Amino acid sequence: xxxxxxxxxxxxxxxxxxxxxxxxxxxxxxxxxxxxxxxxxxxxxxxxxxxxxxxxxxxxxxxxxxxxxxxxxxxxxxxxxxxxxxxxxxxxxxxxxxxxxxxxxxxxxxxxxxxxxxxxxxxxxxxxxxxxxxxxxxxxxxxxxxxxxxxxxxxxxxxxxxxxxxxxxxxxxxxxxxxxxxxxxxxxxxxxxxxxxxxxxxxxxxxxxxxxxxxxxxxxxxxxxxxxxxxxxxxxxxxxxxxxxxxxxxxxxxxxxxxxxxxxxxxxxxxxxxxxxxxxxxxxxxxxxxxxxxxxxxxxxxxxxxxxxxxxxxxxxxxxxxxxxxxxxxxxxxxxxxxxxxxxxxxxxxxx
Length: 352
Ligand SMILES: [Zn+2]
Description:
Among the domains are: about 15-35 and about 70-130, no CATH class; about 140-280, 2-Layer Sandwich (Nucleotidyltransferase, domain 5), CATH 3.30.420. The N and C termini lie far apart (about 60 Å). The chain contains 13 helices and eight strands. It has a five-stranded mixed sheet, with helices on both faces. It is α/β, with parallel strands linked by helices. A hairpin with a 2-residue loop joins β5 (about 165-175) and β6 (about 175-185). The structure holds zinc ion.
């Protein structure tokens, strides 16, 4: 269960300086993840027993089945060799900054040993973000399909181009503008795929606003209301009929082209859509640190993924999928304070 009504500076740090002072070492990070995983107290993942003893090195010994339950087992952090201090800083940058951060920028920023490590961290955090965007949209909801992604390889362009994917998107239309969105890669634009998307992301009884594509009426059936617009006949531009989805499409494309240099391949696009949705749906949240808490909360509830699962089907066009190399692990960010190393003279000489 998500932590209800968390407070700034009590349950989550308010800024990056607070992150660093709250979590100076891996033990502090581990304790925070322990609290996020079992906010109401320990519960054994093997037998469900609610009694256990804390182990000195972190984790629990179950009183029921006597098994050891590690805090990170069964989470995205399982078997990680990257220090938790590094994970926490990456999570902060991904959750809280306006455009997130790409693996290429994260690697030098955190002194990560390889691009592969940075890429896997970012992707695992995206997996966690995908878990959080499960809220159903409601009210008037604009729905449209588009064609997104594509690593530029100089070959075919347009619909048949490699690395491109169909994306269906839904955006709540509210009196004050746009509400939340949901985005999903679908294999084909037809009634079956559109229907699955609508049922998965929109509350029954909501009103779907769409263009006049023939696949919508059977996809909508009796579950939703429907306001179709024949854009050609209406004499309006598509962005006037469906302003929400057009706004989200242009923000998304700008983000993929900017932060990610258009290097996202089709088989990984869904994870990037999840990351975009995570931040877009929380764009009005003034408590930025709350996004950090929500991301880590989902990270301890998201199942682990291996590098092999992350890479999926190798695609020769996906330039941003790291080649398998010997992994190098980053240094922990925990550090003893240094005595102003930029002063190369003995500071005692400065004293009167
Ligand atoms: Zn147990």
